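Internal ticket #5521
Category: modeling
Description: The requester needs a full-assembly model to guide mutagenesis choices. All entity lines are attached below as received. Residue total reported by intake: 730.
Assigned to: D.W.
Attached entities:
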Amino acid sequence: MTTSLPHQADPHALDPTDGPLTVEELRLASRNHALPLEALGSDVTPAGLHYVVVHFDIPTIDAGQWRLRLGGAVRRPLELTLDAIRTRPRSTIPVTLECAGNGRALLRPRPVSQPWLLGGVGTAEWTGTPLAPLLEEAGLDADAVELVFTGADHGIQGDEEHDYARSLPVGDTSGAGVLLAYEMNGQPLPPQHGYPLRLVVPGWYGMTSVKWLTSIEAVTRPFDGFQQRVAYRRQRDAEDPGEPVSRMRVRSLLIPPGIPDFFTRRRVLRPGSTLLRGRAWSGHGTVERVEVGIDGQWLDARLHPPAGPFAWHGWSLEWDARPGDHELACRATDTTGEAQPFAQAWNHQGMANNAVQRLVVTVRG
Amino acid sequence: MTTSLPHQADPHALDPTDGPLTVEELRLASRNHALPLEALGSDVTPAGLHYVVVHFDIPTIDAGQWRLRLGGAVRRPLELTLDAIRTRPRSTIPVTLECAGNGRALLRPRPVSQPWLLGGVGTAEWTGTPLAPLLEEAGLDADAVELVFTGADHGIQGDEEHDYARSLPVGDTSGAGVLLAYEMNGQPLPPQHGYPLRLVVPGWYGMTSVKWLTSIEAVTRPFDGFQQRVAYRRQRDAEDPGEPVSRMRVRSLLIPPGIPDFFTRRRVLRPGSTLLRGRAWSGHGTVERVEVGIDGQWLDARLHPPAGPFAWHGWSLEWDARPGDHELACRATDTTGEAQPFAQAWNHQGMANNAVQRLVVTVRG
């Protein structure tokens, strides 16, 4: 017996596969934390249960030395200390963030990257200063089309060495709730959530909310960095340039009821009245309906008010559980009329999945 | 394409395997968080980066209603509120905890359970009240041999439905640093670390430090609950009753230097002076030596003082990195004379691994 791991040097390792999970995927899953679904019970997700994606390494940043530069196509470039940012107008907003790849590992064939099951989501109370007044102060040039947000995390992806960076169209940067955040749930940002400062863009998939922010640059042509040009796109195949992902599609998740088996996570319940509960959110509109499927019969759940306009809704439904195996499911619809699909339309990177969650449980008499 | 996961109903699923990773292991890896190895840079691990194991679901506990019962073979049974525990003598201690299964997924054949690579470790500052004075107050009967610590997490493992519970010999319960902890790093325990109260037993593998503690029972015969009798044992095979695991074996880990590739995590460095850094700990003695292997040549690293007697040591070594591929490794020795093995002796559950970590890096000129 040995203690070495097989190393996957195959250049096609990133092609979608019907094959088994790879050690690279396990390594990513052990770094990039998922929300355990029972944590859907809380309006606000504690740090450590909120999902985390770190593309490269978590940077170690001395907040005293750190500066935020705001430049490019602006009339008055700014350089700000953390203290200067903290003395600006302050706002605390609960925001639901979801990774654009959430659900990827449930697709067949399976796009090979961070292998999310369903836990790539969370809701935190972010405290920071609204971005819009800062942009007014800097004075965007009339021909600025996007802002490029660059983080301090640095590494290699797709053979390109780069700092993680993403852009946002100018029109989306002044939205209510777009924050430069320095606190999560009333505490300084944890290292893995972007200490000392991150962007938070409500309604958009999490890749937009750049962590460990070091610069904001106004640009007059659309940004073509790796994370914009190659990653985070819905492609038919590797050759398709695809469409960028942006706002979170409507989705709902169910808290697995009953008790789990340690290894299989299979759930066992007692018969009788059971409160089925979960969360639902959408980056396009407000959630207006959640239906719960019990063995194929769909019932309307009760919707609970969210903690804020950018936070998930709670939902609940009483179920009289009878002995036997049952398939539970949930399906949300938002005010734009979009509803979760029963079967997911596939794409090459496994982006923007929002298929109905299904869960088989056993009720034991 | 579908969105269903293959369900592993095979009763032999838990046998060690040379086969591919299973979806059950991925599900566990996405729930049970590892320390990203760059977080070894901090003396104290922030919540959310410290490793977490949750056997069943994270319980939701109302601390106002919660009570700790201390009973069994004692003269004066106690029932304590959280407030009562918080008004008792208070102690804050940095403690390194490691999961007994850390490194399991590196073994061949691979024991199939929570598939730890190397990140099942962390060091937090735990604040609580020492256990020993509480036991004196309750008055252990002379024939009490163990204390059984029971948590609120409830589920099924090995076909046995139970609350998670572990025992500790009476002689080990009065050790310096054995705490009933209600704070981690100066904050109330996060839900996943045992809110509102957990046991912390320095030097022992983490399964001993029972979370969501609800009762302590003095018993006059050794405890034979599932987590003691079946789990957490070093067995040759499924039939071997095996030996219980207890204290953490000497181990060291290296912070991967340079920058990573997103998917493969392969590291790339610039040539020149590079500070190799890491941590080392032992539950049996004090770490007295860390050697760093560079392409098979072993050099003594500098040992840094730990944050406390139960916390890991830092270590460092300057390396003049020359272009090419290099294999880095580290190996600790403690004051009992034990050193990490170059090849791990295998056991059925993959417990108490402490083989030398090896890492190949590329220095690019």
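Resolution: model delivered.
Comment from assignee: Chain A touches chain B through 77 residues (CB under 8 Å).
Ticket closed.
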